[in-house]
């Protein structure tokens, strides 16, 4: 079936007559205008922006599609350019879809831009339709939880949104941040992005931080201002990966004090044993099971026999599975 | 008797002609009714995911009697679940159903009365076995009883059988229908217990601890055998003093001699449950403990913490009465041993221990 044309018409428009605020159709966030400016400077605007005529504001036109092109030409000092003007009767929902499709075919949208789309769609369609029709189009898993998450992203602070857009902050961590106050989440964002935590590390750490605060009856801010954490962060002799590793250790010790103590006791007990070279003993994960493992590295059968022989005469092996319970068990 | 808010009744096509499907709407004459398809979840926007205020009447096509799934890695009591429905009008923050069920609404199965003969035949075909059967796994055994009349037909049915007991497990104090019943044999009335602090902070819409124990006292006086389940035990500063108070209430109102068993279980959860709970109860503190991944993939308190809770509570209860049939739900043999000084070692052995309790207290 043939689609009806848009019935738009070209018009030379003064840039100052265009409202260049991102609402209500724009879906661009944290972009670099320089490559676009360079291209326009060399070849001009290949596809003209689409505008709607305003009836009730000071500026004459609203941007439907081509927001970045218009920003670029403004920065290049153009005073006017040819734009396509959509008919006055053009429905706003259709205008939003026009821009969405224009964006989808041209580029990969970042998560904040997808959130902008979702937010704008709520003005026109029900949540159920966003989930079933638009979220798959945006490559977002189609469920209510994800819809809630994306609707919440727009309310986050600018630095956090930038971290999400550039994929330095995990989306699900951002979801958890929504339950925190502004100051707390900005602090966490700063910690995660300056030390370049992996998404998995972020996920684990934010839970620990929140749970430490809950366990100790302290605020997130107080947990983050912990003396040990602050000292690590300000230690100029340490590299970022070292800092990260040590902060993880500090947080883990505070979050799981008994478990960490057990692990330490086990390590102490093992290191006090004169184990033969190449022999390693590991406890069951979290001491939950009852099976311990011994690993023997050897290159010759004779080495294996020697190590087994030494092991069999080693004093203290009987108590090895109790080492983690404390020094009195060694 | 506590009645819960029901805002709509959804009758699934295929259930209309079941006897319960005709009876339940009559008990809620002013509530709107709707005939729906089974695939139509009828969960409009704005209705909370668990949809605890809609009663969905279903002709159940699955098996009604199933063994508790358990896991090979921990010792399981060998319980049989009688599946009368799923979801519960009360709202405990820790409830596993929040991530277990993928369909909303309080769902009650209306063709159970018609299936009872089949269940009876199955039970009778294993005369040497003891069937310990409960309805309180996927819903509360009594909370919706004022609508479903479960006790009216389940109690006479199970009371007549020779080799089984029916355990009705609840967090309510709604025992009126039990007290009116003329059957006592092979019926165990059980309460989930916790400290009063946990009841008030985490177990929304349930009866208070004292009301539960008073209801238990009434049932005991009326001749019912009792059971209690301290599950999930939660570790927090002051947990032991709080549980001491709960035990004191038991001591005050309950005769320990006709308690068939008391089980303990510590809070454990599949990873996905945490987020379902956090979404619904963002302020809950139940995740503050030191949880580690267990052998079945569920998160549990670090072993020494569990052992501390089990051993202290067990010691305290044993001061009250030595022979309470205390057992652990889904724990490893070494935790049993370190908590109680003995272990059944295997699931069949725990089953035998509990079957023995049944024979001793209930079956001729």
Question: Would you give an account of this structure?
Answer:
- The complex is a heterodimer of chains A (330) and B (364).
- Chain A has 330 residues and is an alpha/beta fold.
- Among the domains of chain A are: 182-255, no CATH class; 260-329, no CATH class.
- Chain A is built from 15 helices and seven strands.
- Chain A has helices spanning 34-43, 67-75, 92-106, 111-121, 127-137, 144-153, 158-165, 171-177, 182-194, 199-216, 220-224, 227-233, 240-255, 257-272, 301-312; strands at residues 9-14, 18-19, 50-53, 61-65, 80-85, 279-282, 293-296.
- In chain A, the strands form two sheets. Chain A has a five-stranded mixed β-sheet. Chain A has a two-stranded antiparallel ribbon with strand order 6-7.
- In chain A, strand 3 and strand 4 form a beta hairpin.
- The model of chain A has no long low-confidence stretch (mean pLDDT 92).
- With 364 residues, chain B is of the alpha/beta class.
- Chain B has one domain (63-104, 111-361): Alpha-Beta Horseshoe (pyruvate-formate lyase- activating enzyme).
- Chain B is 36% helix and 21% strand.
- Chain B has 13 helices and 18 strands.
- Chain B has helices at residues 19-27, 97-100, 112-124, 145-148, 150-159, 176-180, 196-202, 209-221, 239-253, 271-280, 303-320, 333-340, 347-361; strands spanning 8-12, 33-36, 54-58, 65-67, 80-82, 85-86, 91-92, 106-109, 131-134, 164-170, 187-193, 203-204, 225-233, 259-266, 268-269, 291-293, 299-301, 326-328.
- An eight-stranded mixed β-sheet of chain B has the order 4-5-9-10-11-13-14-18. A five-stranded mixed β-sheet of chain B has the order 2-1-3-8-6, with helices on one face. A three-stranded antiparallel β-sheet of chain B has the order 15-17-16.
- In chain B, strand 16 (291-293) and strand 17 form a beta hairpin.
- The longest helix of chain B is centred in the last third of the chain and has 18 residues, at 303-320.
- Chain B is globular, with a radius of gyration of 20 Å.
- The interface between A and B is medium-sized, with 22 and 19 residues.
């Amino acid at each position: 079936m043939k689609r009806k044309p848009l019935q738009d018409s070209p018009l030379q428009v003064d840039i100052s007559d265009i409202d260049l605020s991102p609402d209500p159709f724009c879906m661009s966030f944290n972009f670099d205008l320089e490559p676009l400016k360079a291209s326009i400077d060399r070849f001009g605007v290949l596809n003209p922006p689409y505008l709607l005529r305003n009836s009730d504001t000071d500026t004459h036109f609203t941007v439907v599609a081509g927001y970045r092109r218009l920003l670029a030409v403004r920065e290049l000092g153009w005073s006017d350019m040819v734009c396509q003007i959509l008919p006055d009767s053009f429905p706003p929902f259709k205008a939003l879809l026009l821009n969405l499709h224009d964006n989808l075919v041209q580029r990969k949208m970042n998560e904040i831009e997808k959130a902008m789309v979702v937010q704008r769609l709520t003005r026109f369609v029900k949540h159920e339709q966003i989930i079933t029709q638009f979220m798959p189009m945006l490559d977002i898993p189609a469920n209510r939880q994800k819809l809630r998450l994306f609707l919440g992203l727009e309310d986050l602070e600018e630095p956090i949104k930038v971290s999400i857009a550039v994929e330095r902050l995990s989306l699900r961590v951002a979801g958890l941040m929504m339950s925190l106050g502004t100051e707390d989440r900005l602090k966490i964002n700063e910690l995660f992005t300056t030390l370049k935590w992996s998404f998995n590390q972020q996920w684990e750490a934010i839970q620990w931080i929140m749970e430490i605060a809950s366990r100790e009856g302290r605020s997130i801010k107080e947990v983050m201002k912990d003396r040990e954490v602050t000292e690590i962060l300000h230690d100029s002799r340490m590299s970022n990966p070292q800092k990260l590793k040590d902060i993880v250790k500090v947080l883990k010790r505070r979050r799981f004090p008994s478990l960490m103590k057990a692990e330490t006791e086990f390590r102490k007990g093992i290191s006090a044993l004169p184990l033969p070279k190449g022999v390693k003993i590991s406890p069951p994960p979290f001491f939950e099971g009852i099976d311990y493992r011994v690993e023997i590295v050897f290159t010759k059968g004779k080495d294996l026999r020697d190590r087994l022989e030494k092991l069999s005469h080693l004093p203290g092996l009987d108590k090895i599975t109790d080492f983690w319970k404390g020094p009195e068990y060694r | 008797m506590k009645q819960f808010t029901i805002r709509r009744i959804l009758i699934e096509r295929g259930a209309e002609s079941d006897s319960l499907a005709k009876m339940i709407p009559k008990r809620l004459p002013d509530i709107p009714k709707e005939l729906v398809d089974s695939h139509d979840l009828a969960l409009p926007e704005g209705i909370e995911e668990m949809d605890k205020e809609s009663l969905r009447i279903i002709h159940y096509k699955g098996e009604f009697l199933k063994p508790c799934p358990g896991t090979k890695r921990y010792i399981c009591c060998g319980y049989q679940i009688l599946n009368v429905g799923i979801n519960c009008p009360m709202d405990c923050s820790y409830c596993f159903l929040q991530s277990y069920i993928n369909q909303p609404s309080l769902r009650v199965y209306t063709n159970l009365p018609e299936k009872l003969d089949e269940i009876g035949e199955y039970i009778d075909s294993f005369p040497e076995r003891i069937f310990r059967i409960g309805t309180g796994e996927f819903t509360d055994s009594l909370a919706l009883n004022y609508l479903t009349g479960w006790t009216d037909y389940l109690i006479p049915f199970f009371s007549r059988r020779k080799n089984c007991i029916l355990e009705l497990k609840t967090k309510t104090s709604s025992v009126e229908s039990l007290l009116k019943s003329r059957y006592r044999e092979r019926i165990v009335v059980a309460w989930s217990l916790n400290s009063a602090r946990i009841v008030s902070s985490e177990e929304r819409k349930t009866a208070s601890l004292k009301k539960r124990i008073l209801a238990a006292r009434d049932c005991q006086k009326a001749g019912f055998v009792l059971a209690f389940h301290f599950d999930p035990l939660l570790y927090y500063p002051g947990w032991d003093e709080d549980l001491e108070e709960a035990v004191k209430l038991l001591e005050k109102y309950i005769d320990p001699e006709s308690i068939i068993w008391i089980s303990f279980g510590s809070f454990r959860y599949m990873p996905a449950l945490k987020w379902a709970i956090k979404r619904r109860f963002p302020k809950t503190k139940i995740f503050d403990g030191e949880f580690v991944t267990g052998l079945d993939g569920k998160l549990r308190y670090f072993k020494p913490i569990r052992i501390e809770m089990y051993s202290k509570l067990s010691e305290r209860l044993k001061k009250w009465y030595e022979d309470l049939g205390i057992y652990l739900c889904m724990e490893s043999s070494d935790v049993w041993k370190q908590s109680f000084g003995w272990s059944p070692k295997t699931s069949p052995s725990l089953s035998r221990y509990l079957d023995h309790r049944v024979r001793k207290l209930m079956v001729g």
